[in-house]
Design a protein that fits this description.
Number of strands: 10
Radius of gyration: 29 Å
Bound molecules: copper (II) ion
CATH class of the largest domain: Mainly Beta
Strand order of the largest sheet: 3-2-1-5-8
Distance between the termini: 76 Å
CATH architecture of the largest domain: Sandwich
Oligomer: single chain
Order of helices and strands: HHHEEEEEEEEEEHHH
């Protein structure tokens, strides 16, 4: 520091102000890194921007990167600066001056690190509460809910919340729509721009429902109704994977979903409901509940494999002749 220096011997070079030099270079590099992260990298960050929860996650990752990059730049810059500027001259075997502390450096360190950690705590809390659990499972009685009406029927152009039961079992996903007669589908269809409540459960072991592009991830446990929220923001396809090791075919436990326009979704859902009604599937399915008793499923499913157009929770894997017989 300039103020604590001993007066330079006549003819010797004055020590430059290293702190200001470092700060100036750090400021330029950190600003450049943050601008690149925000404007170039952010649009490509996972999981994309297909739903409200995905958008929030992309935003969160970008904010964390913008917060972290100046710290990384500071560490690397100091490292390089020390190696280049403070390197001992050839033939200089003397010791450095003893240092007993530096109030400015210590105060800057404590204030800087405290500010960053407190900011992350506040930001993390806001981003968890604001988007109703950030797309994660909140258990059977969520404390943060999305705005939307809980209704027994669902119509496009309203504020009705679509309820979708996600049923995991070894090794497939089935989706049940209580607002459409409790019909079941092996692909997950959703309406764009309308709130969705997933009720995630399992018929056997633990699974985890992961709709990657929607930014939704929730544990699927037998006997538990795990609720997660999102609002799809764009039409298109997405994938659903199991993200909890659940047996030998865990890796094959995935299927696909589509976000449709609300009217297209309604005609799809009503169509499946009508078909399953006509085929007798609806009558054969167990009544819609938030959890199911796995021990009765094999009995309920006995006749379902004979009926076309349905696989999943009540039938396919537990039917007669199926290798997986509990
Ligand atoms: Cu699984």
């Amino acid at each position: 520091m300039a103020t604590t220096e001993t007066p330079a011997a006549p003819g010797a070079q004055r020590e430059p102000n290293h702190a200001w030099r470092l700060f100036a270079v750090w400021f330029v590099l950190a600003l450049a890194a943050d601008l690149v992260i925000w404007f170039v990298w952010k649009p490509h960050l996972p999981p994309g921007d297909m739903s409200s929860s995905a958008q929030h996650q992309q935003f969160d990752i970008a904010v964390l990167a913008v917060t972290g990059a100046p710290v990384v730049v500071a560490v690397l810059l100091y490292f390089v600066y020390a190696i280049v500027v403070w390197r001992a001259k050839p033939g200089d075997d003397s010791d450095g001056e003893p240092i007993y502390g530096n109030t400015k450096v210590q105060a800057t360190w404590i204030i800087g690190t405290s500010a960053i950690v407190l900011w992350l705590a506040v930001f993390g809390t806001i981003e968890l509460v604001g988007p109703a659990g950030a797309g994660a499972g909140e258990g059977p009685s969520p404390i943060w809910t999305l705005a939307g009406k809980q209704t027994t029927s669902w119509a496009p152009g309203t504020n009705d919340m679509l309820q979708v039961q996600v049923i995991g079992q070894q090794w497939t996903w089935t989706y049940r729509y209580p607002q459409f007669g409790g019909m079941e589908s092996s692909s997950l269809m959703l309406p764009v721009g309308m709130p969705v409540a997933f009720h995630v459960t399992s018929l056997d072991v633990i699974h985890s429902f992961w709709a990657y592009q929607l930014g939704v991830k929730a544990d699927a446990n037998p006997g538990v109704d795990n609720v997660a929220y999102t609002t799809p923001k764009a039409t298109g396809g997405f994938t659903v994977r199991c993200s909890e090791l659940c047996g030998i075919w865990h890796g094959a436990m995935f299927n696909y979903g589509q976000v449709l326009s609300p009217t297209a979704f309604q005609s799809w859902a009503s169509g499946v409901q009508a078909k399953e009604q006509a085929d007798g599937v609806l009558a054969a399915l167990p009544a819609y509940t938030l959890t199911y008793d796995p021990t009765v499923i094999p009995q309920l499913g006995k006749n379902i494999p004979a009926i076309d157009g349905i696989t999943g929770a009540a039938g396919y894997y537990y039917g007669p002749g199926n290798p997986v017989t509990p």
